[in-house]
Amino acid sequence: MHPRLIEAEQLHAQLQRPELLLVDMRTPPAYAAGHIPGARQLDYSALVRSRPPAMGLLPEPAALAPVLSRLGLSPDAWVVAYDDEGNGRAARLLWTLEVLGHPHLSLLDGGLPAWLAAGLPLSREAPPAAPGSYAVNLANPAAYADKDYVLAHLGDPDVVLLDTRSPAEYAGLDVRAARGGHIPGAVNFNWTEAMDPIRQLRLKPAAELRALLRSCGATPDKEVIVYCQTHHRSAHTYWVLKHLGYRRVRGYAGAWSEWGNDPALPIE
What we know:
The structure is a single chain. 29% of the residues lie in helices and 18% in strands. It has 268 residues and is of the alpha/beta class. α4 (88-99) links the parallel β6 (78-82) and β7. α4 crosses α9 (233-243). The longest helix is centred in the middle third of the chain and has 12 residues, at 88-99. The termini are far apart.
């Protein structure tokens, strides 16, 4: 079983593994300027579906299949993802693959900045294309929550809603939808709280993370649903929880761009 989180030095020692599929979630120009040797570039836009005003929905299987096939994904591939902006984009890829039931997934702790801080090499050579044929099925729906699921579990004592946006967004002071505020009962856990700013945004120690989450009421015995504006930041928090061993975690992909723009839904 591959670890949910991998350090740069550990990854460097594994670069020749034939099953490794290393995915760079940065922009094409950033990738071209230098990437981890062997990494393939994937545009973040390929992982989200827009149905305005909801802007971060999970793509339909028919749209995801060619994207992942072109990437060279196979059922036995070990996917390691990274970016250079806190790993939100990388985590969104891993969450998507988790919903599809892909079993071998890791996040590079600290992303490319951690790789560079370790003095490890970059490459400007793109690996040769290795397209495959990846069958997309939503094999793990327990990792996913839609609007109806969230609405049905409001007030459920077994479910914790974590709003991973900024405190200003949560409080309705920074309004990025028709309405400001948050889903009733949600607790604010700014996604950056999980990061160590002096260690290239690596995750904080597990004990510290568990204490932070416990203070939000997000304990391992609960089901935790995470959301932000478009399930970019909250995908990172999803991965933090899974790294810590939380068994029941769901990402609400519609997030505030859907909920905050629907006048039929309750808000606080």
